[in-house]
């Protein structure tokens, strides 16, 4: 049940997109960071409940090296067991050709490669230099597109990096352009450690010249994810990454905490009168259910308000 205090919807504003595509990353970005490995059955139910709640893009898992991210070592089993629904996309993360082989074998139709805007994180997350990560991705994108797959590019550490500090926008734009030029249809700008503020978001999006191929991916470490999202929407971005219940983090960036919670995003979009297709009650039920499986409360303020 939605609690009292639900804000009145306002007519959608001319400076905002009328529809927002929510790119749900809970099963991947959320569960990759859990201390323990979540049971396959729980993952399968999680993905199915997210689809039932109306999410139409659900990033399901990663075909990375299982030693690097043991939490998602069951990627093939997950895809084999998933009851997929028409109209729902289930992208997966793929770092290299070995990962692509595994993803193709599992029958995926949408992949995401993930690059770093900084040298240090490229080494820590991918065991590559900034330049050599692109050499790793190039054949992945080429082969994936030849197979008819959609390819998204992620770019991490777009605002700050725990080892290198503030990351200049020009450096991020240069790295992001390489992913787009390689053939990624969308570029998701990641604030991996959640340090950005809205003015920086506006400046970075402006640096790309057009918001058309951009998505945003905010972690909420400093409580700025929702403010940053609104700034991105005002710049014309209409795809926003978030994770149910605010699960998330990155195992190779210790200061990264949870993603923007999908419920918090939905609450704001509802208030602004922007369509998104998600049933907030079903989603909050799902996150409350997941919180009991994980043994701790959801960090999402909206889940706490509705189900706390
Ligand atoms: P590496 O050790 O350099 O790998 O790792 P390699 O290429 O040297 O290969 C070594 C061995 O691993 C070989 O086996 C390969 O076959 C095998 P051997 O010949 O020795 O028997 N191998 C694989 N096996 C299974 N699946 C694979 C695979 N690749 C190689 N895909 C690698 C390089 C990229 C694989 C490694 O660094 C890796 O897996 N990194 C993934 C880290 C990760 O998943 N991080 C979290 C996701 S990113 C994120 O969360 C940020 C994001 O949310 C946005 C944001 O918030 O900013 C997206
Ligand atoms: Mg992330």
TrEMBL record:
InterPro entries, per database record: Aldolase_TIM, HMGL, PYR_CT
Record keywords, A-Z: Lyase, Metal-binding
Stretches assigned to the Pyruvate carboxyltransferase domain: 20-284
Any one GO molecular-function label of the UniProt entry: lyase activity
Pfam family, one: HMGL-like
SUPFAM superfamilies, per the entry: Aldolase (SSF51569)
Family affiliation: Belongs to the HMG-CoA lyase family.
NCBIfam families assigned to the protein according to its UniProt record, in alphabetical order: PRK05692.1
Protein name: Hydroxymethylglutaryl-CoA lyase YngG
Species, as recorded: Kibdelosporangium persicum
Lineage of the species this protein comes from: Bacteria, Bacillati, Actinomycetota, Actinomycetes, Pseudonocardiales
């Amino acid at each position: 049940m939605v609690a009292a205090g639900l804000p009145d919807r306002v007519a959608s504003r001319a400076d905002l997109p009328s529809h927002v595509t929510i790119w749900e990353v809970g099963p991947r970005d959320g569960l990759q960071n859990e201390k323990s490995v979540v049971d396959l059955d729980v993952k399968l139910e999680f993905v199915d409940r997210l689809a039932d709640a109306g999410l139409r893009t659900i990033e399901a898992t990663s075909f990375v090296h299982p030693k690097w991210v043991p939490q998602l070592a069951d990627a093939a089993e997950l895809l084999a067991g998933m009851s997929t629904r028409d109209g729902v996309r289930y992208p997966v993360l793929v770092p290299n050709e070995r990962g692509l082989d595994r993803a193709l074998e599992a029958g995926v139709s949408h992949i995401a490669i993930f690059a770093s805007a900084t040298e240090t994180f490229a080494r820590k997350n991918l065991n590559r230099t900034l330049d050599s990560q692109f050499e790793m991705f190039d054949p992945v994108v080429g082969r994936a597109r030849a197979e008819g797959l959609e390819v998204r590019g992620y770019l991490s550490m777009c605002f700050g990096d725990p080892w290198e500090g503030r990351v200049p926008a020009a450096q991020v734009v240069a790295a992001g352009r390489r992913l787009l030029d390689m053939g990624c249809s969308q570029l998701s700008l990641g604030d991996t450690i959640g340090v950005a503020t809205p003015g920086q978001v506006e400046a970075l999006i402006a640096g790309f010249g057009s918001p058309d191929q951009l998505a945003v991916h905010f972690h909420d470490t400093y409580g700025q994810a929702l403010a940053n999202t609104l700034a991105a929407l005002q710049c014309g971005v209409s795809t926003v990454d978030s994770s149910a219940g605010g699960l998330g983090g990155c195992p190779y960036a210790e200061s990264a905490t949870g993603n923007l919670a999908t419920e918090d995003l939905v609450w704001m979009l509802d208030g602004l009168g922007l369509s998104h297709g998600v049933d907030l009650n079903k989603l909050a039920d799902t996150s409350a259910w997941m919180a009991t499986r994980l043994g701790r409360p959801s960090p999402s303020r909206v889940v706490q308000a509705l189900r706390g």
